């Protein structure tokens, strides 16, 4: 009796647990482009195009490999419009009585499959280094779940950058060598780009016709859409950008949306690349003296540390995690996040990159758009939905802990030990945005003062009861307390003016 083997749009890996479990001779693979997945949030058109094009090509590869594949295109007249709907339709067509699938990366879809009126066997997703059980064991009994200690476990488990029991280079973490401001004259290569072939061309026309109202620019579309191309993109990164990845990891330069970042999260998160093979490629570059330890260690930490840790937290904390609003922030997300006018050069650059590339690099996400949303008191669920929509690497397992946890401090401090907030000084130190901004970063109050400068203090004072006992924040409050009374009143009044403008939908 045939079983259906569901392969989702972010499960495009030949070694997927559902495929390993299935029988090529008797089971039928089901893949479906469905409106529900494309619109449960209005994903960026480039993200939908990446997933549909990569799905079509992966389905063809499976067929070449001898699998029977039932593939539904979005515009098939019989398409039921949802994953469960498609499974039921295919079950009726084939007489299949059961489904096997690899665990989806969102509680939403896990719940739909668990409650589907067809027997569904959900297997672990072993494309990750750390299983749910291992993460639970690691978390058990710990007061604080800090990434650094988890990361060391993952180094030991994978053997990456290990010399016996010791870390390569004598240290676990080389961050003190990283995070330099970038000189203005750098010339990063950026990601490898690919001309759309006929299959991608068809998908682009479909996405344009069906999802033209979603935020974001579809063309030019130059993403990799096969594993072979994604491997080329990996080689390109290792060759050209990895050596300087660490140095300028937190730097931001106008008109350089990619800096020395990998631009590989798109491919890892939809399954075209595996995390270990990506890290092994970086490790080889270190062993071959092509890239220094600070770059390679920093890069590997992002993947076997942060990426695995975020997934661990998402599944450990449960299905209500993404709905947390620990600081009770309620303001609506301003129009500037959707490309509405803003006088802030840093926000404008981050949103423009997001619109054009379905990408912004980490420090733009954390210290520009995330920082602004937090200090402006924006509702974390609105912020989270924005991130889930606009980035081509966004799936809730990785997006929610990054946004609700790390960036918006809305999870009650599970991930971050203090909120990632800053005044304009940080952005000025790490970027060249302020030079071309309408606002003055050195002005703390009055007309033309950088909004980050006033909102920063407003946020800290609004949440003083929550943070004043936090040892890592004592300096901030001491600085505030040393300011004279009149100045403090002006700062808060000016912040209120900025917030009033946001509430009135006026340009900030
Ligand atoms: P690089 O900077 O070159 O890093 C290499 C790899 O490390 C990435 O490809 C990614 O797989 C991994 N990585 C680095 N930091 C993180 C992190 N904090 N969490 C998980 N993986 C990490 N990443 C996503 O994959 N999806 C998201 O939806 C997402 N949302 C984010 C939202 C906010 C507010 C913040 C602050 C970060 C978010 N990140 C997210 C993490 C990070 O910004 C992206 O992984 C990174 O920008 C992807 O670009 P890159 O491949 O060029 O990464
Ligand atoms: C993100 C996405 C989109 C846009 N479309 C589809 C789709 O049509 N079919 C599909 O199988 N998967 C799609 N995905 C990925 C799913 O949303 C993803 O599997 C879940 O969010 C769980 O991570
Ligand atoms: Fe951003 Fe303020 Fe600098 Fe303008 S002055 S770019 S708003 S940090």
From TrEMBL:
Signal peptide positions on this chain: none
UniProt feature coiled coil, ranges: none
One Pfam family here: DPRP
Record protein name field: Cryptochrome/photolyase family protein
InterPro entries: Crypto/Photolyase_FAD-like_sf (IPR036134), PhrB-like (IPR007357), Rossmann-like_a/b/a_fold (IPR014729), UV-DNA_repair_photolyase (IPR052551)
Species of provenance: Sulfitobacter albidus
């Amino acid at each position: 009796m045939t079983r259906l083997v569901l392969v989702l749009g972010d499960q495009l890996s030949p070694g997927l647990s559902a495929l390993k479990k299935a029988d090529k001779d008797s089971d039928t693979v089901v893949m479906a482009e469905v409106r529900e997945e494309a619109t449960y949030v209005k994903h960026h058109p480039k993200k939908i195009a990446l997933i549909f094009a990569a799905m079509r090509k992966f389905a063809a590869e499976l067929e070449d490999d001898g699998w029977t594949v039932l593939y539904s295109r979005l515009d098939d007249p019989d398409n039921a419009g949802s994953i469960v709907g498609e499974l039921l339709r295919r079950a009726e067509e084939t007489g299949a009585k059961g489904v096997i699938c690899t665990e989806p990366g969102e509680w939403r879809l896990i719940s739909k499959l668990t409650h589907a009126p067809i027997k569904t066997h959900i297997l672990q997703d072993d494309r990750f280094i750390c299983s749910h059980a291992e993460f639970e064991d690691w978390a058990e009994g710990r007061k604080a779940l800090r990434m650094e200690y988890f990361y060391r476990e993952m180094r030991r488990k994978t053997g990456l950058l290990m010399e016996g029991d010791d870390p390569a280079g004598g240290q676990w973490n080389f961050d003190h060598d990283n995070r330099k401001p970038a000189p203005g004259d750098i010339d990063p290569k950026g990601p490898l780009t690919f001309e759309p072939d006929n299959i991608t061309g068809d998908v682009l026309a479909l996405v344009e016709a069906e999802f033209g109202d979603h935020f974001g620019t579809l063309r030019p579309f130059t993403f990799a859409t096969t594993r072979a191309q994604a491997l080329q993109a990996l080689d390109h990164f290792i060759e050209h950008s990895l050596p300087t990845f660490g140095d300028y990891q937190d730097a931001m330069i106008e008109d350089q949306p990619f800096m020395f970042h990998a631009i590989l999260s798109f491919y890892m998160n939809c399954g075209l690349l595996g995390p270990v093979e990506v890290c092994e490629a970086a490790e080889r570059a270190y062993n071959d003296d092509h890239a220094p330890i600070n770059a390679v260690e920093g890069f590997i930490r992002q993947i076997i540390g942060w990426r695995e840790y975020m997934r661990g937290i998402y599944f450990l904390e449960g299905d209500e995690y993404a709905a947390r609003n620990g600081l009770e922030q309620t303001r609506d997300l301003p129009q500037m996040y959707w490309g509405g006018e803003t006088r802030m050069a840093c926000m404008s650059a981050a949103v423009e990159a997001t619109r054009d590339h379905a990408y912004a690099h980490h420090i733009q996400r954390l210290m520009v758009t995330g920082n602004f949303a937090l200090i402006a008191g924006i509702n974390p669920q609105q912020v989270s939905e924005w991130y889930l929509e606009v980035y081509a690497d966004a799936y809730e397992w990785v997006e929610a802990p990054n946004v609700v946890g790390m960036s918006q401090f809305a999870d009650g401090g599970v991930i971050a030990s203090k909120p990632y907030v800053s005044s304009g000084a940080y952005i000025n130190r790490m970027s060249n945005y302020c030079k071309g901004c309408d606002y003055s970063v050195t002005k703390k109050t009055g007309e033309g003062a950088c909004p980050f400068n006033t909102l920063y203090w407003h946020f800290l004072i609004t949440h003083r009861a929550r943070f004043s006992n936090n040892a890592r924040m004592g300096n901030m409050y001491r600085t505030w307390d040393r300011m004279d009374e009149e100045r403090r009143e002006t700062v808060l009044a000016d912040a209120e003016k900025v917030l009033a403008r946001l509430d009135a939908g006026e340009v900030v």
